[in-house]
Amino acid sequence: AAGVIQSPRHLIKEKRETATLKCYPIPRHDTVYWYQQGPGQDPQFLISFYEKMQSDKGSIPDRFSAQQFSDYHSELNMSSLELGDSALYFCASSRGQTNTEAFFGQGTRLTVV
Amino acid sequence: AQTVTQSQPEMSVQEAETVTLSCTYDTSENNYYLFWYKQPPSRQMILVIRQEAYKQQNATENRFSVNFQKAAKSFSLKISDSQLGDTAMYFCAFMKHREYGGATNKLIFGTGTLLAVQP
């Protein structure tokens, strides 16, 4: 069965650079969520989208922006990267805004040096 | 604000035995959802079990079951017949019910319990 696809799987960037993370939800899933998991930390909710509109917003820095496109894939854009942005970034998707079952991708590991 | 607390950073269990992972949460909401997620060394987040707060019956999924005590705000996970593949970090998570119905899509996680199943 198709799963949530995240790309790239690994990314190394220098401080002050920009990074773009992509998420391709499971087919027919219209809701996408982004989470950030720092080393040894629990995942923190960043932002979610339903039908290409922002649904909920969490602790997402102003340096980050995200959107969901017409094909339901989502991109997380991160600018002016800081060392503290080094983390595992998860994308999850679900079908319908009220569906509580979210399927997670394998994550993108971002390292800022 | 909602918080989720897992007081056991690490636990160990022998293969085939039973283990219980603890989770407490704090919320003023009456309707919400609770989850247990598993994160093996691959770092993939996998849903183990889910409970709706309005349901009194405890959720069960094969070897996994929960003890949901709404008044005590407690949500423990019991793993029966532990298997080596159960070795993972286990996260308890909370999701608020949206006022006009449905979920908020925003999971609040606890700090996790690292479970090691010993052969």
Order of helices and strands of chain B: EEEEEEEEEEEE
Question: CATH H level of chain A: which superfamily?
Answer: Immunoglobulins
Tally of helical segments of chain B: 0
Give a count of the beta strands of chain A, DSSP E runs of length 2 or more. Answer: 11
Order of helices and strands of chain A: EEEEEEEEEEE
Major sheet size, sense and barrel closure of chain B: 6 strands, mixed
Characterise this structure:
- The complex is a heterodimer of chains A (about 110) and B (about 120).
- With about 110 residues, chain A is an all-beta fold.
- Chain A has no helices and eleven strands.
- Chain A has strands at about 5, 10-15, 20-25, 30-35, 45-50, 55, 65-70, 75-80, 85-95, 105, 110.
- In chain A, strands 2, 4, 5, 6, 9, 10 and 11 form a seven-stranded mixed sheet that branches. In chain A, strands 1-3-8-7 form a four-stranded antiparallel sheet, with no helix packed on it.
- In chain A, strand 7 (about 65-70) and strand 8 form a beta hairpin.
- Chain B has one domain (about 5-119): Sandwich (Immunoglobulin-like).
- Chain B has no helices and twelve strands.
- Chain B has strands spanning about 5, 10-15, 20, 25, 30-40, 45-50, 60, 65-70, 75-80, 90-95, 105-110, 115-119.
- In chain B, strand 5 and strand 6 form a beta hairpin.
- Chain B is globular and about 45 Å long.
- The termini of chain B are far apart.
- The interface of A and B includes residues 31, 35, 41, 98 and 100 of A.
Which keywords apply here?
heterodimer, A: 113 residues, Immunoglobulin-like, seven-stranded mixed sheet, B: 119 residues, four-stranded antiparallel sheet, 12 strands
